[in-house]
């Protein structure tokens, strides 16, 4: 039974782009595929598969909702030899549309030697999907709109790599005909990591609403060689504003191709009916946008009238900030030499589990002071510790099914007046877990109120606790691999104690990622990182079995 | 033949790194000897080509006395004057016993070798696994054997335990549940 009203708030969220809040993002195994791909690359093995991204769109879907239209979402499955379906990923939900073009792509590993049957299901999403991780949406609660099947190689061998299929009812059900068509477009992806972060705003936009102002959002699409365009992201909606300023947008090279590829930027007025009014558009490459930022100038939007006449509008787009950077994937850094590579564990089906430790030493500066590394900015700008926690959270959500993970602080004076080198960030005596990034962030914020920064900077206790957890899980015979993230500003006080703890932990399923904030002297960290081939030695002549530490300056 | 108070270990002597004879890299024919303080346990074959990075990868089952606290690994080579020890390392039994990992965990361990002058001389890589005893095959005559004691439930923390199944390695964490 269809819904009376669609979930408008859900439809206003930003989609696409690279950095998303964990609840809105839906990244479909991309993290796992990164890990597997890196595994092959790091061994110099010939890649026996190519990573392919599927973009989906549909036309003439059946209308299931009463007052508004269907809110469709597509789910992609691989069909195993025994006929069972295994979900590969799902798109986002599009509001009120019978002709959706989904932005969220589904990543599939195309293996040359085998036949890969794919099954696509389209659903009309009934339940509220605002702030719910899309992958937890129960499909049986949604209305089924149609199914299509094909083999992956069919899509790749078609001209334009696009395959259009008729949607039908599930096999065995007597159903309606004419459920619409689904188009699948495939593109091979390259695991590049350069990203571009921009802050955009518009001024003097036309008013498309009658009783209030426009609610503008931007949609950025990439132009294909065939002439069509594929949306790569959209910003969030700014309500009631003709001079909107959007949150920073992050695009990866994967998404826009090269900096010279032309992109279409469309500015729409959001309508809860799903039929958004185009305010204006322009065509710019990423390089052009960079020039706009440098010149601090704007570019006028245009609109094409019915007669095909292109009218230049008063509305302009400005690029306030433009920044190109390497986006670090933490998985790239958790690589080890010697006997056991953590990816050996992942490829054998080990589950990744994260642990976080935050530096509460006085060298960070008094948290009340805006210069402090622990300063919580009321405007919402994240400090380095918060950024690191967010980025870890994005990776964790792909791997850690229950989203609960241990979080500690070290080097601070806790409520009872003693300095602890491993205290529970959530302030609890019994449990060290936080729930998701939100839990981690709020535990961090409240710890800043309850803990006095002290010192010295010692990692040994945290490493020992992490090693203890990792070895306990070994005994439960569960396949878990642990990654401890230590976020610190600084200079280690007892390098040898840290080395001893690391050496002792070096043959456990554990990797340690040290994220260094601010530009402190990280010479010691580089010693621990042992990338120059010097294995760490303990004070008792034991040598590390493998290099379990990676150091990443933030 | 089982002795009353010993534990069985499966030791794989894997390889050595940067081992020198009088500061010059070893040319060939290095081998490793494993022993406790009192008796030899096993030795590997000579690595004919390995030079100063010998590779043996030989698995040996050895028994160590239950009270032993170290096992010693020596890398030696043949000289005209007999077998010469190039480097030695002492492996504390506590490095593969105790802690929270299960008794049968395969530990990969590496140690700094030191020559007779105490100078650093390369690294030795081994793996060690404590063998769970096979009660059915046990040929001991102790009446203290209790077959079927659920591991981890006996409330004893370290030290010698009367009534412990014969041949079972006395591993502290074994009893910590």
TrEMBL record, chain B:
Pfam families: C2 (PF00168). It comes from the Eukaryota. Residues 1-107 form the C2 domain. SMART domains: C2. Coiled coil: none annotated. One of its GO terms (biological process) is defense response. This is C2 domain-containing protein.
């Amino acid at each position: 039974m269809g819904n009376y009203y669609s979930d408008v708030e859900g439809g206003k969220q930003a989609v696409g782009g690279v950095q998303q809040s964990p609840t809105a993002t839906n990244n479909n195994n991309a993290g796992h595929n990164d890990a597997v791909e890196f595994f092959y690359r790091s061994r110099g093995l010939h890649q026996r598969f190519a990573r392919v991204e599927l973009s989906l769109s549909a036309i003439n879907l059946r209308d299931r909702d009463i007052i508004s239209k269907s809110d469709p979402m597509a789910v992609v499955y691989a069909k195993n030899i025994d006929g069972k379906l295994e979900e590969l990923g799902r798109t986002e939900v599009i509001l009120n549309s019978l002709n959706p073009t989904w932005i969220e792509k589904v990543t599939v590993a195309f293996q040359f030697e085998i036949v890969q049957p794919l099954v696509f299901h389209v659903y009309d999403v009934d339940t509220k999907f605002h702030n719910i991780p899309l992958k937890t949406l129960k499909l049986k609660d949604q209305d089924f709109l149609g199914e299509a099947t094909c083999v992956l190689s069919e899509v790749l061998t078609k001209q334009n790599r696009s395959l259009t299929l008729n949607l039908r009812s599930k096999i065995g059900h007597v159903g309606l005909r004419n459920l619409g068509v689904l188009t699948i477009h495939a593109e091979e992806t390259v695991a590049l990591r350069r990203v571009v972060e921009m802050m955009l705003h518009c001024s003097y936009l036309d008013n498309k609403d009658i009783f209030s102002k426009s609610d503008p959002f931007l949609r950025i699409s990439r132009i294909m060689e065939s002439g069509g365009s594929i949306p790569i992201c959209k910003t969030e909606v700014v309500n009631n504003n003709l001079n909107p300023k959007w949150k920073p947008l992050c695009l990866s090279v994967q998404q826009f191709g090269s900096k010279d590829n032309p992109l279409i930027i469309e500015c729409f007025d959001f309508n809860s009916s799903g039929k958004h009014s185009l305010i204006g558009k322009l065509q710019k490459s990423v390089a052009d946008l960079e020039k706009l930022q440098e010149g601090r100038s704007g570019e006028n939007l245009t609109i094409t009238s019915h007669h095909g006449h292109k009218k230049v509008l008063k509305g302009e787009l400005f690029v306030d900030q433009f920044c190109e950077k390497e986006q670090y994937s933490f998985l790239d850094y958790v690589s080890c030499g010697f006997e056991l590579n953590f990816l050996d564990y992942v490829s054998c089906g080990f589950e990744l589990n994260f642990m976080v430790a935050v530096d509460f030493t006085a060298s960070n500066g008094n948290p009340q002071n805006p210069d402090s590394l622990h300063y919580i900015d009321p405007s919402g700008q994240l400090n380095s510790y918060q950024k690191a926690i967010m980025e870890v959270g994005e990776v964790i959500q792909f791997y850690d099914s229950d989203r609960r993970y241990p979080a500690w602080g070290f080097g601070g004076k806790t409520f009872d007046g003693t300095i602890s080198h491993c205290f529970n960030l959530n302030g609890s005596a019994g449990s060290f877990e936080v729930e998701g990034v939100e839990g981690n962030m709020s535990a961090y914020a409240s710890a800043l109120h309850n803990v006095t920064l002290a010192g010295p900077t010692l990692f040994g206790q945290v490493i020992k606790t992490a090693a203890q957890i990792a070895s306990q899980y070994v005994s439960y015979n569960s396949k878990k691999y642990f990654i401890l993230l230590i976020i610190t500003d600084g200079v280690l006080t007892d390098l040898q104690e840290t080395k001893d703890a690391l050496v002792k932990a070096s043959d456990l399923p554990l990797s340690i990622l040290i994220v260094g904030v601010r530009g402190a002297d990280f010479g010691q960290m580089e010693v621990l990182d042992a990338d120059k081939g010097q294995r760490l030695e303990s004070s008792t002549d034991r040598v590390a079995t493998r290099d379990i530490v990676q150091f990443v300056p933030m | 033949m089982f002795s009353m108070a010993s534990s069985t270990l499966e030791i794989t002597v894997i390889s050595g790194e940067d081992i020198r004879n009088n500061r010059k890299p070893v040319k060939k024919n290095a081998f490793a000897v494993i022993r406790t303080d009192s008796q030899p346990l096993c030795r590997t074959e000579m690595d004919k080509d390995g030079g100063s990075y010998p590779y043996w990868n030989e698995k040996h089952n050895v028994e160590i006395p239950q009270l032993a606290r170290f096992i010693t690994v020596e890398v030696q080579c043949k000289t005209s004057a007999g077998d010469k020890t190039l480097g030695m390392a002492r492996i504390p039994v506590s490095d593969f016993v105790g802690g929270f990992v299960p008794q049968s965990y395969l530990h990969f361990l590496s140690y700094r070798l030191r020559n007779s002058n105490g100078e650093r001389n390369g690294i030795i890589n081994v793996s060690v696994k404590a063998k769970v005893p096979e009660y059915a095959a046990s040929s001991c005559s102790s009446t203290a054997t209790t077959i079927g004691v659920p591991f981890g439930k006996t409330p004893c923390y370290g030290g010698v335990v009367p009534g412990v199944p014969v041949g079972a390695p006395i591993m502290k964490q074994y009893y910590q549940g």
